[in-house]
Amino acid sequence: MKTALGTVLISQEDIRHRILEIGRQISSDYAGRAVTLVAILKGSFVFLADVIRAISPEVPVELDFMAVSSYGDATTTSGTVHIEKDLGISIDGKDVIIVEDIVDTGLTLLHVYNILSARGARTLRVATLLEKPGKSKYDRPLDYVGFKIPNKFVVGFGLDYAQRFRNLPDIRVLDEV
Questions:
Q1: SS3 174
Q2: Which tens digits make up the pLDDT trace of 58-94?
Q3: What whole-number distance in Å separates Cα of residue 171 and Cα of residue 124?
Q4: In this structure, are residues 97 and 71 in contact, taking their beta carbons and an 8 Å threshold?
């Protein structure tokens, strides 16, 4: 498939403003207690880096990563979730926020949520940069949502197509040509 970058769906400036708002909300929600952020690699790393800097220094933050895949090099999910890297810390009894780049089908998030819940997280919340409403199998609330977007395949700001386009500073629609 040949691809071309379409129009900018969400500008760099809009992303920056929304992430600052999410950071303020997390800071308020976790005032006086610690929070553990579990980022789902690879797509969430850019969002995570900005969110963690937007959280007040008064909130103790612990961080770990999981590498999970369901897309491979395709633009649609395979329907099978693979854990490629697991956590290196215990989350038992901790307040945890799962940090995602995008919630589309919700399969990855549902899988990760169930794993972390079984490991004894005291609370589990979700922060996602993007949400595609309507077809998600994840039926719990998304606590911190950057933007709701239409059902288009998007790249940029950490999101990729076949490992490309993560370095774009904005969110763009990936078009077939």
A1: strand
A2: 999 999 999 987 655 544 555 677 788 999 999 999 9
A3: 27
A4: no
**Angstrom distance (rounded) from CA 126 to CA 117:** 12
* Chain segment 3-20, per-residue pLDDT in tens: 567 789 999 999 999 999
Peptide bond into 148 cis (omega under 30): no
| Strand partners of residue 44 | none
Q: Helices (DSSP H) in 39-120: which residue ranges?
A: 45-54, 107-118
Please tell me whether residue 119 adopts helix, strand or coil conformation: coil
How many residues are there in the chain? 177
CATH class belonging to 12-149: alpha beta
Q: Which residues are catalytic?
A: 104
In b/e form, how buried is each residue of 80-112, taking b as 16+ CB within 10 angstroms? ebeeeeebeeebeebbbbbbbbbbbbbbbbbbb
